[in-house]
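<goal> How does this chain fold?
<body> The protein record starts here
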Amino acid sequence: MSGVRGPGSGVRLARSSDLDAILALEHAAFPPQDRFPRRSWRRLLTVDSAICLVIDGPRTPDTGHRTVMASIAWLLRRGSGNARMYSLSVHPDARGRGLARALVDASLRRLPRGVTTLSLEVRRDNGPAVGLYCALGFIETALLRQYYGRGRHGIRMRATRAAVRQALSANRA
């Protein structure tokens, strides 16, 4: 897709007005059973217990609105040192350009200082995502049988914030 800039350019906090663009991204990036409903995204974009970042793409020719090429959402629990990655998506046309890493990197700067542990769940058969998370310092901590539906297992992964920061720094070197 033309107009997609390099990693790290254009990472910003998501706004409520990004809802339709984020849903369009989810539609392009995930099969129907893996998409989050509109009401979940609407809530994420308005509560203090979530941090949502996006990377803008080109404007659509018909409306002139910006597209969202990548997004990440983190859930925070007050008094907890853990942040849970709720969603990370990159448009298929923009994969392999470092956008997911750029979002994780920007997230480390946005998450509260007291957050020292990061966690996520991912479909076990999503090789590219599992590979990315392993490269970022996440390790598998649990098998989640049928987590994504019948015959679709998940895995829980955890990492320290310091390990992810170190993995990102090593990648830049």
